[in-house]
Recover the amino acids of this structure.
């Protein structure tokens, strides 16, 4: 019991914080991975979190033995305990729980995780942070019996400082992950993808000096291909008035700048003869930031991205976005994608199809995808999980959406591959929704004025004109690229309808088709009118492509979708069995006929646009 009361002291001292800090460039920092096997406890009733009065145990002055975050063991043979991590099963982190334990395949609720470890700090003065790449959806984090805080949002990173809690021996991190869907959350109750739960991305301890480079941005100024600008931000007690050096040896840049009282400094540096990043030439420069004998390396590409009339210009050259939409799922294993090998598989397929662009739907994907896209020369659309009908009138929901948008923008701002921030997908038109999206777009532009803003909107019929489609969404005024999903031939008529459709889009902005497509079970053959056959999907692609050629401002597309993916909405036995079949590649990795239609079209577009 003594042990418990000393822990309580620690608990009371701590004020619980909501994590929303994002570390820049974790791959190049001094880290110790906590990936691997973690013990877990499935807590359907959340008994380890709430007491029998339904009060959170971590807010009680005297939490009883049942508070799982305390990670207790019976002291003697009479002690009452109803959980025990040591005898509980283990699963792999990172990874979703659905694919690792058959009983958890459909599970939506709380699972507790525990990892124990020893840790030796390099220097007495160093600081240590506990970082999660992502965990879905709400994560409460405890270390050595103390609550560090919580994070909401399933696809963005967060960290807590643990310097003062760390011991040399027998540390334990206990994490409660809850993936229950909620109406007011982002995303909301209703989605068309699998609600994978768990600690789905890497967990690391990051060790820094007492004052260190926390964040930075290094990129070309908007529309100025000869000026590299950005900022550097130090964190720590002596962050004011410090010298930091930015060097890019290949460009003969070596500049020292001095931070202000907040540890912040901005810079702009003229640069000559930059070898610009582009899909044809994914040049990345070695960039080094040095502060007080600490160095942080990165590889950064430089390019401009702009819109002029209906053209998208990369490095001042018109481009056609040969894209494909992708979910963060490894279909071969039927699980969330989380590692570099997964990114290689997915982006490798996209490249094979002839893509120079991917739409990472419908939420921020793991950082491996972005770093690999940088290396492979694939341009990227990143998306905020504002999907379908979230409660647009709820201010807390707005704050959650904004927080997740900021988190991904902070993480990926130095990736040249990212050219578009997407605010939302298929949201219903209304005044409150317009306000919501306008505010999100304004925030995005404030954080990053160099990239383009868009959202996957919806097409509509043009009133009074038969077979005429267009888009009439007031949010179009706030985006750089008019993107919309159209499902002619699947949800809207049969593929033959494509021949009858006229498009009327009176806007001189680039038009991008963020989705079209249809389902096919790989290996099911039939006539082009047999829904679910590969021939139907093939015909749908041929006719959609022909139809879309009529749109003069068309500057790209990301059809739905690269591979079949798990979705509980897809219940039809034999054909679907829990899979959305709109993939151009099956869950076994076999290409369907439509894959080759798109590949052929992209060959043509490459010849035409370069
Ligand atoms: C859509 C959604 C996407 C769905 C797709 C479908 O419009 O944006 O998330 O999966 O349709 O297959 O119905």
């Amino acid at each position: 019991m003594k042990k418990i009361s000393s822990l309580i002291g620690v608990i009371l001292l701590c004020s619980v914080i909501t994590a929303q800090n994002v570390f820049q460039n974790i791959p190049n920092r001094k880290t110790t991975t906590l990936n691997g096997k973690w013990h877990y406890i499935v807590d359907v009733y959340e008994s380890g979190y709430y007491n029998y009065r339904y009060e959170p145990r971590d807010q009680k002055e005297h939490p009883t033995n049942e508070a799982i975050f305390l990670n207790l063991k019976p002291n003697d043979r009479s002690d009452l305990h109803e959980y025990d991590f040591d005898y509980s099963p283990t699963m792999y982190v990172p990874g979703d729980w659905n694919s690792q334990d058959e009983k958890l395949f459909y599970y939506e609720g709380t699972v507790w995780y525990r990892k124990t470890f020893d840790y030796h700090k390099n220097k007495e003065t160093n600081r240590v942070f506990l970082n999660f790449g992502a965990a879905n959806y709400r994560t409460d984090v405890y270390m050595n019996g103390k609550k560090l805080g919580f994070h909401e949002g399933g696809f963005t990173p967060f960290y807590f400082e643990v310097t003062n809690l760390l011991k040399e021996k027998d540390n334990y991190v206990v994490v409660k992950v809850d993936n229950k869907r909620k109406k007011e959350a982002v995303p909301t109750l209703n989605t068309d993808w699998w609600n994978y739960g768990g600690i789905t991305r890497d967990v690391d301890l990051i060790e820094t000096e007492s004052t260190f480079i926390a964040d930075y941005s290094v990129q070309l100024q908007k529309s100025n291909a000869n000026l590299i600008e950005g900022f550097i931000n130090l964190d720590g007690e002596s962050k004011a008035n410090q010298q930091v050096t930015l060097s890019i040896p290949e460009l003969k840049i070596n500049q020292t700048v001095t931070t202000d009282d907040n540890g912040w400094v901005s810079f702009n540096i003229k640069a000559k003869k930059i070898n610009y990043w582009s899909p044809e030439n994914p040049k990345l420069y070695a960039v080094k930031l040095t502060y007080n004998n600490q160095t942080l390396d990165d590889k950064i590409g430089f390019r401009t991205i702009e819109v002029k009339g209906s053209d998208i210009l990369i490095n001042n050259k018109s481009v056609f976005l040969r894209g494909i939409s992708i979910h963060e799922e490894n279909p071969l294993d039927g699980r969330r994608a989380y590692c570099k090998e997964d990114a290689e598989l997915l982006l490798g397929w996209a490249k094979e199809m002839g893509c120079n662009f991917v739409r990472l739907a419908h939420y921020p994907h793991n950082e491996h995808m972005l770093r690999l896209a940088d290396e492979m020369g694939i341009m990227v659309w990143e998306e905020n999980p504002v999907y379908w009908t979230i409660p647009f009138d709820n201010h807390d929901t707005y704050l959650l959406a904004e927080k997740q948008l900021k988190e991904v923008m902070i993480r990926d701002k130095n990736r040249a591959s990212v050219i578009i921030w997407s605010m939302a997908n298929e949201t219903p038109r209304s005044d409150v929704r317009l306000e919501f999206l306008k505010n999100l777009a304004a925030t995005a532009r404030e954080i990053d004025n160099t990239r383009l803003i868009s959202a996957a909107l919806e097409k509509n019929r043009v009133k009074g004109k038969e077979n005429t489609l267009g888009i009439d969404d007031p949010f179009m005024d706030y985006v750089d690229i008019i993107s919309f999903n159209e499902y002619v031939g699947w949800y809207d008529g049969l593929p033959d309808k494509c021949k009858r459709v006229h498009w009327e889009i009176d806007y001189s902005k680039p038009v991008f088709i963020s989705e079209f497509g249809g389902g096919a079970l790989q290996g099911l053959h039939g006539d082009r009118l047999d829904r679910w056959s590969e021939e139907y999907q093939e015909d749908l692609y041929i006719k959609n492509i022909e139809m879309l050629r009529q749109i003069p401002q068309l500057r790209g597309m990301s059809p739905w979708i690269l591979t079949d993916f798990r979705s509980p909405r897809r219940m039809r036995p034999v054909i679907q069995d829990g899979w959305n079949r709109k993939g151009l590649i099956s869950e076994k990795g076999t290409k369907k006929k439509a894959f080759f239609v798109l590949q052929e079209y992209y060959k043509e577009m490459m010849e035409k646009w370069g």
Q: What stands out?
A: Residues 192, 362, 425-426, 485, 515, 560, 580, 582 surround GCB (CB under 6 Å). Residues 1-20 have pLDDT under 50 and may be disordered. Residues 2-208 form a domain with the Jelly Rolls fold (CATH 2.60.120.260).
